[in-house]
């Protein structure tokens, strides 16, 4: 059975579980912070695709107090949890949370300086991935960028076994690791890293690079302009 990210139990346990499930989860956010600080102006508006329970929003809003954020997630319970989280921290004046996937972006009258899609696109069906990245690209300014992190296709059983070993070492129990492996087959639509780069380019990004890798997890940065600054 595919994992229901709107289920209350999943929502409540999400933050604790994902730190064991995703190798280097905290490092992902440190790298995102460094890239955003390097590429963006002091005042910026950020789109967060698949905001989950709001951890990412809290971290970025606290790191960049002059920035505004628009967060979307197709799971209403995730959005509710995120709203409760940021309201409790007094951050709601700079963060708007909206239920929906990237198809709603054309209805949002905002041009973003950057978009984040962290651990999201691997859930998007293969036939919908190009539209996913196009929706994001079209919502950005002509100097905008997108940062994404996704699980990519396994070339052999050893690659999956390596991921299982790493997550076991990170704190998952053996049963949880086996459930993870089963759900990768059921829930994920994995493609190769080079195919993700091609999708970025087809979606309108002029320059695309990988900025991180942990086994089959890759981080990508796509720039709407072709010359780095």
TrEMBL record:
Keyword Isomerase tagged: no
GO molecular function: transferase activity
Keywords: Transferase
Pfam family of the protein (one): Methyltransf_25
Limits of the Methyltransferase domain: 46-144
Designated name of the protein: Methyltransferase domain-containing protein
Record organism: Acinetobacter bereziniae LMG 1003 = CIP 70.12
Phylogenetic placement of the source organism: Bacteria, Pseudomonadati, Pseudomonadota, Gammaproteobacteria, Moraxellales
